[in-house]
């Protein structure tokens, strides 16, 4: 199965420098960034390895990742 990579720099390339800046200067951003990265790795692992998982569980992980991404995006724009 082809798995698309969703790291934040790939998803929001226009904010690459800002992402780096906030990761080093804002503890809340850094914590959210780490959570986003954890969720992305887990979703990709489940999809790549065809791990038996319910559709509902995978959807919940993706929804949480999207919510975290939205919050990060808001911080990047602000």
Describe the structure.
With 78 residues, this protein is mainly alpha-helical. It has one domain (8-77). 76% of the residues lie in helices and 0% in strands. The protein has four helices and no strands. The protein has helices at residues 8-11, 16-25, 27-48, 55-77. Helix 2 (16-25) crosses helix 3 (27-48) and helix 3 runs antiparallel to helix 4 (55-77). It starts with 7 loop residues before the first helix and ends with a helix. 10% of the residues are buried.
Largest sheet: none
Number of beta strands = 0
Radius of gyration: 13 Å
Average of per-residue pLDDT values: 91
Shape: elongated
Which runs of at least 5 residues are low in confidence (pLDDT < 50)? none
Number of helices: 4
Tell me the fraction of residues in β-strands, as a range. Answer: under 5%
What does the oligomeric state look like here?
Answer: single chain
Number of domains: 1
List the helices and strands in order: HHHH
From the N-terminal CA to the C-terminal CA, the straight-line distance is 37 Å
> Class by helix and strand content?
mainly alpha
Share of residues in helices: over 70%
């Amino acid at each position: 199965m082809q798995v698309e990579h969703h790291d934040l720099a790939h998803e929001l390339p226009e904010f690459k420098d800002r992402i780096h800046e906030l990761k080093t200067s804002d503890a809340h951003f850094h914590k959210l960034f780490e959570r986003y990265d954890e969720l992305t790795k887990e979703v990709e692992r489940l999809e790549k390895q065809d791990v038996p998982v319910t559709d509902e569980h995978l959807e919940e992980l993706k929804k949480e990742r999207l919510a975290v991404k939205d919050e990060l995006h808001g911080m990047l724009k602000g």
